[in-house]
Every structure is written in C-alpha cells, then in structure tokens.
UniProtKB/TrEMBL annotation:
Attaches a formyl group to the free amino group of methionyl-tRNA(fMet). The formyl group appears to play a dual role in the initiator identity of N-formylmethionyl-tRNA by promoting its recognition by IF2 and preventing the misappropriation of this tRNA by the elongation apparatus. (6S)-5,6,7,8-tetrahydrofolate binds at S108, L109, L110, P111. The lineage of its organism: Bacteria, Fusobacteriati, Fusobacteriota, Fusobacteriia, Fusobacteriales. This is Methionyl-tRNA formyltransferase. Residues 204-300 form the Formyl transferase C-terminal domain. It comes from the Bacteria. Gene3D superfamilies: 3.40.50.12230. InterPro entries: Fmt (IPR005794), Formyl_trans_C (IPR005793), Formyl_transf_N (IPR002376), Formyl_transf_N_sf (IPR036477), Formyl_transferase-like_C_sf (IPR011034), GART_AS (IPR001555), Met-tRNA-FMT_C (IPR044135), Met-tRNA-FMT_N (IPR041711).
C-alpha cells in the first residue's frame, strides 16, 4: 500500500519501522521540534529521527487543518493513512482522502481509556490487563469502529515504561496484521460501546501528587503508573520529593496517620502510613538530588521518623 504515516513519540517508531518493511511510505508527518529539557538544543521527535535516518520525507505542519496541508495530503494519493500517537486531531476533510480510510493504533482496550494517557491509567486503576486497539479514525477522539485488538497481562512488577514497551511492539505487529486483512477484505469493523467508554485527560503537575489518604494498594499502583514519566511526587519539609517505587507492607504492625514516616525497614527503605495499610519507599529522589535507593535514603538520613509528607 501507499501509506502516509503520522506519529511523534517513541511508541510510534516500531509501527513506522514495520510498515516500511512491507509498504511504500509516501511521507511522515510529526509534531514540530522542541527544545530539550534544558531548553537549549532543539530535539527531533523520535519519529522524525527515524524517518531522516531512513531517508523518508518529513513534514511538520503547525496545523494539520491548513488548506495547503490538506491539499498536499490529497496530492500524495495515499491508499491509507496510519496514525500512531501523532498528538493532533485530524479534520474530517482528511479522513475521506485515502482509499482505505485512516486508522489509528491506540494503547488501550477500547472503549476503555480513550484519550492522552491510557498506559498510565491502566496501571493506576489497578487493571489486570491492557492492550492495543486498531480502529478507524473518526471526528470524535478515539471513538471509531475497532478493527482489531490484542491484550497483555499487567504484572505486579510492571511500571509505565515496561508496559509501554510491550504495547509498542504489540501495536506494531497488530497493525501489520490488520492491514494485511484489510487488503484481503477479511476484516470487520466493530462499533465501540459508548456506555463502556472512559476517558483519560493529559496529566497536570498537581495530578502527579500522591494522596496519602488513599490505600497502600492505590498508592502502589499510582507510583508505578507514573514511573518514569511524569513521576509521582510528594512534599517533604516544603520541598518536592519524587517517589519512583514503593512496596506494600505485608505485616502492617505499625500504624500512623496517612503520610506519616513510621520507621526504617532494614535493607529495603522507609515505611510510610497510608489511608489503609503501609508502603515502603524503595526508590526516590529528594529535590536537587539524584535518584536514590531506599537503603541510601536511610543511610543519608533524608527522611526522619515521625515527620509527615504533605
């Protein structure tokens, strides 16, 4: 097929790579370049970096809705447009251009977790499985008929990064399989059940703060769902304190107010009370410090017994 690809982050690179092996990539659309975290050097998107290395044409329009951009898409005469985490909503004028329509790879089992952060949400909400969905793009966000789905178990040791990597490869493989079935006309699009639809908004900074009134289990899921980005945090002695990993305490002998630092757990980390049960902080980053293990937190005397997180 003659395919236009639209994607931006690392999650989209595997799909582009797989597509290039079997199809003609007419051009690659990606979001505009931004400065790196230090705000100095301009950083290419992962998709742009891959495309340039493989001599693919790259387009980075400020607006995908511009008349000139839409006409350029028409001029390519694509059979199919594939969207993978592009970060822009396509107007209806584009949706009708390709012969086979516009399809999207979404990192959840739709209709659950439509929107911006489905991988985070699946872990934070304690789901036992996640997956990917290939669906037609319609005007409403992530609401199109589903062409294919594949699922994977969410393990206790998974965090956002590990689940992201699993779904990235799963999505790329399912995309190729779906396009093959489209070409053979051996596929059926199934409308989503709107009653079961849930939505995930982009995270604001305040959304990343740990609520110590939640249960130990909820905080365990929240921390790993936010790891490594954007990262869960709390406030200790007026300063931001990032927490990257916690364990649920099994015994639960000590009790305290939610957010209270109860004791040190030898060889592990720092025990903290929650709304129900306790957690052990095993990896964290005090403000202006490097990431530390729970043992290093104890040895460095970064947290004091009897103090409270805000």
């Amino acid at each position: 097929m003659r395919i236009l690809f639209m994607g931006t982050p690392e999650f989209a690179v595997s799909s582009l790579k797989k597509l290039e092996e079997e199809h003609e990539i007419l051009a690659v659309f990606t979001k505009i370049d931004k400065p790196n975290q230090r705000g100095k050097k301009i950083q290419y998107t992962p998709v742009k970096q891959y495309a340039l290395e493989h001599h693919l044409e790259v387009l980075q329009p400020n607006s995908i809705r511009d008349i000139e951009v839409i006409q350029k898409i028409r001029d390519y005469h694509p059979d199919l447009i594939v969207v993978v985490a592009y970060g822009k909503i396509l107007p209806k004028e584009i949706l009708g251009i390709p012969k086979y329509g516009v399809i999207n790879v979404h990192s959840s089992l739709l209709p659950k977790y439509r929107g911006a952060a489905p991988i985070h949400a699946s872990i934070i909400h304690g789901e036992k499985e996640s997956g990917v969905s290939i669906m037609y793009v319609v005007e409403e966000l992530d609401a199109g008929p589903v062409l294919a789905q594949a699922s994977v178990e969410i393990l206790e040791e998974d965090n956002c990064a590990s689940l992201h990597d699993k779904l990235q490869e799963m999505g790329a493989n399912l995309l190729i399989e779906t396009i093959r079935n489209m070409e053979k006309q051996q596929i059926q699009a199934i409308p989503q059940d709107e009653v079961k639809a849930t939505f995930v908004k982009p995270f604001r900074k305040e959304d990343c703060k740990i609520c110590w009134n939640q249960s130990a289990r909820e905080i365990f899921n929240f921390v790993r769902g936010m790891d490594p980005f954007p990262g869960a945090f709390t406030i200790y002695q007026g300063k931001q304190f990032k927490i990257a990993r916690v364990e649920e305490e099994k015994e639960g002998r000590l009790q305290g107010k939610a957010g209270e630092i109860l004791s040190y757990v030898k060889g592990k980390g720092v025990l903290v009370a929650t709304g129900s049960g306790n957690v052990i902080i095993t990896k964290a980053k005090p403000e202006n410090k490097k990431m530390l293990s729970g043992v290093d937190l104890i040895n460095g005397n970064f947290l004091q017994e009897g103090e409270h997180f805000e």
